[in-house]
Amino acid sequence: MTQIFDEKGNVTGVTVIEAGPNYVTQVKTVEKEGYCAAQLGFGEVKAKKMTRGELGHLGQLSPNTKHPQRRAISGVVPVKHLHEVRLKEVIYKEGDILKADVFAVGEFVDVSGTSKGRGFAGGIKRHGFHRQKKTHGASDRERAPGSIGAGTSPGHIEKGTRMAGHYGATQVTSTHLKVMLVDAERNLIAVSGAVPGPNGGIVIIKDARK
Question: Is the pTM of this model over 0.90?
Answer without folding.
Answer: no
